[in-house]
Write a structure and sequence with these properties.
91 residues, alpha+beta, 2 domains, three-stranded antiparallel beta sheet, elongated, binds zinc ion
């Protein structure tokens, strides 16, 4: 992992965020980040895999949001259809 601000690679553990992910603090600039800080899907509560799967289904099969939410629910990710709408509009 590399710091997004100063590009150093030395971190110390600095607790956990609300989702339970490990927080690391850069020893040089003191910036905090998690393993997910560099992800294109940071800020969303679902894992990158779930989001990528939903996007793939939507783009490849042109499924309606309600069907995608139902398929994700079968895989244990309970997604609100409104969340899918907001996520697709924001990105
Ligand atoms: Zn840094």
């Amino acid at each position: 992992m590399r710091c997004q601000r100063c590009a150093q690679e030395q971190f110390v553990k600095a607790g956990r965020d609300r989702a339970g992910r490990q927080i690391y603090q850069c020893e040089a600039c003191r910036r905090w980040q998690t393993d997910r800080s560099t992800s294109a899907f940071r800020g969303y509560r679902f894992s990158d895999d779930i989001i990528a799967l939903a996007v793939r289904w939507y783009l490849r099969f042109r499924l309606p949001y309600a069907d995608i939410a139902e398929l994700l629910a079968e895989r244990g990710a309970h997604v609100d259809v409104c969340w899918l709408l907001r996520a697709s509009v924001q990105r």
